[in-house]
Design goal:
Distance between the termini: 62 Å
Order of helices and strands: HEHEHEHHEHEHEHHEEEEHEHH
Number of strands: 11
Strand order of the largest sheet: 2-1-3-4-6-5-11-7
Largest sheet: 8 strands, mixed
Length: 344
C-alpha cells in the first residue's frame, strides 16, 4: 500500500457550506490564504484540525474541509492544548479574534504561549466586536466611539504582539488581510515552527469599523505607513527607501536617509534573537510617530510542550511501569466519612 501523501489543492480544503460573512469582510481574504497554504505543507488533510472560539472569525472551522471544533468563548487555546497533548501528530490551528482572545480568552492565550504548545494561532484583529454588532474591543483605540462607548473609549488598548512576546511566545508575526502574498508567506513560516506560532492579522470590518487600517493599505499612504521586517536586512521604508529605523540607546527612532544618515545606520533586523527586547520594541512601532511593522518579529527554537509531556510520561512509565487506576484513586491521603458525619 502506498503511504505517499496525495497532491492537494485549494479546492480540497473548501467545504460545501455557505460562507456567511458580510460581503467585503476581510475574513474572506484570510480564509483564501489559509486554503492556499494548507495543501502546500505536504500534510494529509485528515491530520489538520481547526479550532475556534466565538466571534465572526470563529466560523472558520465550518469553511475548512478539515476536522474542526467550534468551541466556546475564549477557550479555543484550552481545547487545542488538550487535543495536541492527546494527538501530538496532528496539525492544530486556532482561529480567533481580538475580543475572543484578548478579553475572555486572555488567560488561556497567555498560558498557551508560555507553555509553547505546538499550535498555530491566527488572531484576526479588526479592533471591534463585529459579531455582537459593534461594541469596542480590547484592541480598539483610545477614544473609540461605539454603541457601548458613545462618548469615546477611555480604555488603553492591548497590543497583541507585545502581550505575546511578554508571555514568551517563540514565534510572533503580523500581516494584513489584503496583503495576500505577505500573508501566505507568513502562514508558511508559522506552519514550519515547532512550538506556538502567534500571528496577528489586521482585518477590515467594513460594517462596524471600516477603513481602520487604510493608512497601511491605501496606495498614497502605505509606503510611509508600513515597515516590513526582513531577517538580515536593514529597517528601511518610505517611497524609494527614504526613511529608516535605528537604535538610539534603548529606543528606536525614525531617520531620514540620504543626508546625514544612510542604510548602514539602520538597525539590521534579527528575528532569531533569544532576548525578546528588540522584538518587543518593534511591536511598539505604531502610528502616528512610526510606521506599523509587519513580518516575523520573533522566531526562536524551544522544545514544544507536548513533546515534554510525552517524554515525561514515557520516562515515568519505564521507571515505574503501567499503573492501575484503582491504585491511583486509593493512593495518598484518603478518609472515610461515617454515617454520623465523623471523619476518620
Amino acid at each position: 500500500m502506498s503511504t505517499e501523501t496525495p497532491t492537494l489543492t485549494k479546492k480540497d480544503f473548501v467545504t460545501d457550506q455557505e460562507v456567511r460573512w458580510c460581503p467585503g469582510c476581510g475574513d474572506y481574504a484570510i480564509l483564501s490564504a489559509v486554503q492556499q497554504v494548507f495543501p502546500e505543507l505536504g500534510i494529509p488533510r485528515e491530520n489538520f484540525v481547526v479550532v475556534s472560539g466565538i466571534g465572526c472569525s470563529s466560523r472558520f472551522p465550518y469553511y475548512m474541509n478539515t476536522f474542526g471544533f467550534h468551541s466556546i468563548h475564549g477557550r479555543a487555546p484550552a481545547f487545542a492544548t488538550g487535543l495536541k497533548l492527546a494527538r501530538p501528530e496532528l496539525e492544530v490551528w486556532i482561529a480567533t479574534g481580538d475580543g475572543d482572545s484578548m478579553s475572555i480568552g486572555g488567560n488561556h492565550l497567555i498560558h498557551t504561549l508560555r507553555r509553547n504548545v505546538g499550535v498555530k494561532i491566527l488572531m484576526f484583529n479588526n479592533r471591534i466586536y463585529g459579531l455582537t454588532k459593534g461594541q469596542y474591543s480590547p484592541t480598539s483605540e483610545l477614544g473609540k466611539k461605539t454603541k457601548s462607548t458613545p462618548a469615546g473609549s477611555v480604555d488603553y488598548p492591548f497590543n497583541p504582539l507585545s502581550l505575546a512576546i511578554g508571555a514568551g511566545a517563540t514565534f510572533v508575526a503580523r500581516s494584513v488581510d489584503i496583503f495576500q502574498g505577505h500573508l501566505r508567506d507568513t502562514l508558511r513560516r508559522a506552519a514550519q515552527h515547532k512550538g506556538t506560532a502567534f500571528v496577528e492579522i489586521y482585518q477590515n470590518c467594513n460594517i462596524f469599523n471600516d477603513k481602520a487600517f487604510t493608512y497601511m493599505t491605501d496606495k498614497d499612504t502605505k509606503d510611509d505607513g508600513v515597515l516590513q521586517l526582513e531577517h538580515g536586512k536593514p529597517l528601511i521604508y518610505g517611497k524609494g527607501g527614504t526613511k529608516g529605523i535605528r537604535m538610539r540607546g534603548t529606543e528606536m527612532e525614525v531617520i531620514e536617509l540620504g543626508g546625514e544618515f544612510g542604510p548602514q545606520d539602520c538597525l539590521v533586523w534579527d528575528e532569531s534573537l533569544h532576548n525578546p527586547a528588540t522584538a518587543f520594541l518593534a511591536a511598539q512601532l505604531l502610528p502616528p510617530q512610526f510606521p506599523t511593522a509587519i513580518g516575523v518579529f520573533r522566531s526562536v527554537q524551544q522544545e514544544a510542550y507536548e513533546k515534554r509531556v510525552v517524554d515525561q510520561i514515557q520516562h515515568e512509565t519505564e521507571r515505574l511501569g503501567i499503573g492501575k487506576l484503582d491504585d491511583l484513586l486509593r493512593a495518598g491521603d484518603t478518609w472515610t466519612v461515617s454515617e454520623q458525619g465523623a471523619v476518620s
